[in-house]
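Quick start: what a row looks like.
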Amino acid sequence: MEKSRRMYGSPVEKLLWMVKALFCSYGVTGILLCLISFALYKWELDETKVMAGIMSVYILSTFAGGILVGKLAKKRKFLWGFLVGLCYFAILLFVSYGLYHSLQNGGTDVGPVFLLCIAGGTIGGMLS
């Protein structure tokens, strides 16, 4: 039992894996959103292109977090990637609701964003 715990991490180590992966995901989010805002300023992009860029940010950010947590976990990587995507979405939803006191567009974008976050994290975990 002790050898297994050392090999695959204690619960505290697993929590740290998630925190590191989420920091990585939100770091990638910050960088990519800065690039989108620069492109919006420079080329005056229309709303559909900006929304496509934001959706791409969700996928790439959770993908990066999934890769990181998969490399740290070494076992059940897809599950850890899934959890990163889920936590990323939960934090995103919590902050969005906290700032706007409602879900934007009546909550119609929540389903697709949830699926994109989960898919990005899971695929990142599987490919790590």
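That is the whole record. The chain is about 85% helix and 0% strand. Helices lie at 2-8, 11-43, 47-73, 77-100, 110-127.
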